[in-house]
Amino acid sequence: MDWLKESLLELSYGKCAYCECDLKEEAKYMEVEHFEDKANNPNKVL
What we know:
Blueprint: H1 2-11
């Protein structure tokens, strides 16, 4: 899923959507948050 991670980083200018910290720093990691219940929407889980 590297293509998805790269697309999301590009859309957010490489920053966290919540705190705007730089996600390209070595100590940071990128995690995609879910907005719908994953148990009831399995077709939307990556």
